[in-house]
Design brief:
Elements: H1 3-16, H2 53-64, E1 71-76, E2 81-87, E3 92-98, E4 105-111, E5 114-118, E6 126-130, H3 151-156, E7 158-165, E8 168-173, H4 175-178, H5 183-187, E9 195-201, E10 207-213, E11 223-229, E12 245-247, H6 250-255
Parallel strand pairs: 6-12
Antiparallel strand pairs: 1-2, 1-11, 2-3, 3-4, 4-5, 5-6, 7-8, 8-9, 9-10, 10-11
Length: 258
């Protein structure tokens, strides 16, 4: 399988988390396993925006809570479904994506600065990568230092937002602001600067749903909805056995931003 096409799945995954990155498509993957895992949970300020201060402040606070404790992430879209558990504080995660007819399952396990990916169309073994070498904007560096839950990145892409009801918001994301150095996003041109979204928060002011209308990028993509639940759940992914692991090829690392 073309490693560049697999890298676009990394973009899709981060977009699904609501971390302000763009969805440029999905390659063909097969294999992977179901998530394991069952950690817990800092925050800081978000970038400025032209959005109304009250709505932006409330959405910012809700998003920043994703940096504070563990959470279950569930993703639904026309091109991929799945999810798993992640703990930004310990930088641990166990996620599985099902690409359906487009290629089956891809599983990703993160423990600290180490990330393993399993896609049988590439290798029967787990492919290891050092997340720190993927760079802050690397497509598979899902929990970078200083913004492990990706909340600041998401808020950095908000160009407008309004409150539409109790715990309900709608607005527009500019992926080029959230990720100015991402070549895939730049290639999308003006379309990447006006991505409609809606968001929901719970009674405790936490972000619990983010729906992004990715059909503006490509009609067949439709809406991608990410939900957040089971806050504080235990996250304890298992490190793949040494005999089942090999270092990811340089071409894959480079495609992911390494």
């Amino acid at each position: 399988m073309n490693t560049r096409r697999l890298a676009t799945t990394g973009v899709a995954l981060v977009a699904a988390f609501g971390l302000g990155l763009g969805l440029t498509g999905c390659g063909n993957q097969n294999g992977g396993d179901a998530p394991v895992g069952n950690g817990n949970a800092g925050a800081s300020s978000a970038p400025a925006s032209s959005a109304p201060a009250n709505a932006l402040a409330e959405l910012t606070a809700a998003a920043l809570k994703l940096n504070e404790q563990s959470v279950r992430v569930n993703i639904k879209s026309s091109v991929m479904n799945g999810g798993g558990l992640m703990d930004p504080r310990s930088k641990s995660a166990d996620m599985t994506l099902d690409l359906g007819a487009q290629g089956g399952k891809v599983r990703m396990v993160t423990i600290g600065d180490d990330m393993w990916l399993k896609a049988k169309s590439i290798s029967d073994k787990w492919l290891h990568m050092d997340a720190t070498k993927l760079g802050a904007n690397g497509q598979m560096n899902l929990m970078p230092d200083g913004d492990p839950g990706g909340a600041k990145k998401m808020i950095g892409g908000v160009v407008e937002v309004k409150k539409t009801g109790e715990g309900a918001f709608s607005g527009t994301l500019d992926y080029t602001k959230a990720n100015p150095n991402d070549k895939d996003i730049k290639a999308l041109g003006e379309k990447a600067k006006a991505i409609p979204f809606t968001a929901k928060t719970d009674a405790e002011g936490r972000l619990v749903e983010l729906a992004v209308d990715t059909s503006v990028l490509l009609a067949s993509l439709g809406q991608m909805t990410t939900t957040y639940s089971d806050f504080g759940a235990s996250v304890s992914p298992e490190k793949p056995a040494a005999g089942e692991t090999e270092e990811a090829p340089e071409s894959l690392k480079k495609a992911f931003g390494g």
